[in-house]
C-alpha cells in the first residue's frame, strides 16, 4: 500500500520562506515522478511543481517560477518544495502527488501580509 505524507506547512509573513517535505512509501520512489499541487479555499487544485524520477528535470507553474524549488532525495524517499519570497496568494493546502496516482492529505500554508 502506498503512503504519501506531507509536512512542513505553517503560518508565516509575506517574504518568509518555508520548506515542505513529502515522504512516499510502498512504491518504487526512485522511478516515480513527483508533483506538488495546491488548493486554496473555493478554488480547484492547481499544479505547482514537477520533478522527474532522477531529479534531472523540473517544471513550475508560472505563479511560483523563480520563488519555489522542487528537489528530491531518493535515498530518503522524500521530495521537497522550498518556497521563498512567499506571498499571501500562496496561501493554500499543499498536496504531494506520487507517481501520478497517489496523494497525501496535504499541509496547510498560510501567508499573511
How would you describe the overall organization of this protein?
The chain has 113 residues and is mainly beta. Helices cover 0% and strands 52% of the residues. It contains no helices and eleven strands. Strands 2, 4, 5, 6, 9, 10 and 11 form a seven-stranded mixed beta sheet that branches. Strand 5 and strand 6 (58-60) form a beta hairpin. The mean pLDDT is 97.
Question: What does this entry show, briefly?
Answer:
With 113 residues, this protein is an all-beta fold. The protein contains no helices and eleven strands. It has strands at 3-7, 10-13, 18-25, 34-39, 46-51, 58-60, 68-73, 78-83, 92-98, 102-103, 107-112.
* Tally of contiguous helical segments: 0
Query: What class, by secondary structure content?
Result: mainly beta
Strand content: over 45%
- Let me know the number of strands: 11
Helix content percent band: under 10%
Low-confidence sequence ranges:
none
Q: What's the rounded overall pLDDT mean?
A: 97
Q: Largest sheet, described in full?
A: 7 strands, mixed
> Span between N and C termini?
41 Å
Order of helices and strands: EEEEEEEEEEE
Approximate shape: globular
C-alpha Rg (nearest Å): 13 Å
Amino acid at each position: 500500500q502506498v503512503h504519501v505524507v506531507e509536512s512542513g506547512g505553517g503560518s508565516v509573513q509575506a517574504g518568509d520562506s518555508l520548506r515542505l517535505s513529502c515522504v512516499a512509501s510502498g512504491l518504487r520512489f526512485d522511478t516515480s515522478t513527483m508533483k506538488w499541487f495546491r488548493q486554496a479555499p473555493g478554488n480547484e487544485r492547481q499544479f505547482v511543481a514537477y520533478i522527474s524520477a532522477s531529479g534531472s528535470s523540473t517544471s513550475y507553474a508560472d505563479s511560483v517560477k523563480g520563488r519555489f524549488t522542487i528537489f528530491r532525495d531518493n535515498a530518503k524517499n522524500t521530495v521537497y518544495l522550498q518556497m521563498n519570497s512567499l506571498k499571501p496568494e500562496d496561501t493554500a493546502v499543499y498536496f504531494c502527488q506520487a507517481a501520478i496516482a497517489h496523494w497525501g492529505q496535504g499541509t496547510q500554508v498560510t501567508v499573511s501580509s
